Amino acid sequence: MLISTKGRYGLRSMADLVLYAQKKPVPLRVIAERQGISESYLEQVFALLRKAGLVNAIRGSYGGYVLARPAHQITVGEVLQALEGPLTLANCAHRGGTIECDKMDTCLTMPFWQKLSAKIDEVLFSTTLQDLVDEERATGKRQGPDPQAPI
Amino acid sequence: MLISTKGRYGLRSMADLVLYAQKKPVPLRVIAERQGISESYLEQVFALLRKAGLVNAIRGSYGGYVLARPAHQITVGEVLQALEGPLTLANCAHRGGTIECDKMDTCLTMPFWQKLSAKIDEVLFSTTLQDLVDEERATGKRQGPDPQAPI
DNA sequence: TCTAAACCCAGTAAGTTGGTAGGAATATTG
DNA sequence: CAATATTCCTACCAACTTACTGGGTTTAGA
Predict the structure, then answer these.
(1) How far apart are CA B109 and CA A144, in angstroms?
(2) pLDDT digits (tens, 9 = 90+) for A78-87
(3) What is the CATH number of the domain that holds A34?
């Protein structure tokens, strides 16, 4: 399992926000209940998301969390990077360049890691939160109220 | 860092075998020295590779390891799977099907994990050890003797 | 003022990582 | 047969990570 619960819970929670935080902020208690996740653990997840500027918090009663940007402007890669740290496969293959590897000249595997990383980034940073819920709508799995429906 | 040293050391060692184990077995001591890896740690890596049927061991003096199959018949995916265990991103996305997820019906992220896993597997299981050294030859980085050269 | 929420920090049990150490079994060479 | 070089096996370890739990503080709406 390459992605920890932090990343998986966080991504599910962000998708949850897309669906349910259109009109007003959603409190963690509700997300935790709906997604079956410990609320105090989710706190730590959202602390990271907030620090990364992906969600805005509204404190006090009737508060909660909302997306900081429209769903189609937040990529899955941004979310996972905020929660899991840099998504590198090896030191020699990470977004934006190469770092510290004394064997760069002779390493037989570096080009492979870089190629794989590029492929992964291609998916991660081209898929947005909107894509997640759109796919869901297309297959007709979703349960909650239609967030796009006029009220 | 999604791939641990076991996977990275192992892949580098397998590439090393492609280059240097054409005529006779290569002892761990030599690989460890050439790749700058602890020999006793490499032992554990090669125990896994042997159990996965990817290398054959020759015991005793003048022994060592050789590839169990030609380099173009061993994929990077096989090597990493033997060393890292199943390369799944989440429970709901692993090679050959879906397992235990009580939220399958409503999970917004499952299709994404499956799509990403498929992309990764595409690279992992279409790249062979031979491809690693071929790329190396193309860019002219390699140092050792040409294993394809007639003797 | 009551209450519901975000926020913050500390701790923790279990598992993983990246090794080290010591020795037993096996095969080759002299 | 003896010496040597190798694989093979098991146990151990310290540091780190994971997936939480708990206790309290601050903030804002009714």
Answers:
(1) 15
(2) 999 999 998 8
(3) 1.10.10.10
In a domain, B49, yes or no: yes
**Nucleotides on strand D lying under 7 Å from protein C-beta:** 3-11, 17-23, 26-30
pLDDT value, residue A104: 57
CA–CA separation, B69 and A35 (whole Å): 47
Gap between the Cα atoms of A7 and A3, Å rounded:
6
Binning pLDDT at 50, 70 and 90, where does residue B147 land? very low
Q: Which residues of B touch A (CB under 8 A)?
A: 1-3, 8, 11-12, 15-16, 19, 35-36, 76, 87-91, 102-103, 105-109, 111-113, 115-116, 119-120, 122-124, 127, 131-133, 135-136, 139, 141-143
- In total, how many domains does chain A have? 1
**B127-143 pLDDT, tens digit each:** 999 999 997 666 655 55
Domain, as residue range, for B79 = 5-86+128-139
Kindly list the distances between the CA atom of residue A146 and the CA atoms of A140, B106, B109, in Å, as whole numbers in the listed order.
11, 14, 18
**Residue A24 in domain:** yes
CA distances from A4 to A7, A16, A137, B91, B115 (A): 6, 18, 26, 11, 18
Per residue in A79-118, pLDDT (tens digit) is: 999 999 988 888 766 655 555 566 655 788 999 999 999 9
Could you tell me the pLDDT band of residue B146, with boundaries at 50, 70 and 90? Answer: very low
B51 in Cβ contact with B83 (< 8 Å): no
- Tell me what pLDDT residue A151 has: 28
Residue A66 falls inside a structural domain: yes
Chain A: give the shortest CA distance to residue B13, in Å. 10
Q: Tell whether B46 is covered by a domain.
A: yes
Report if pTM > 0.70. yes
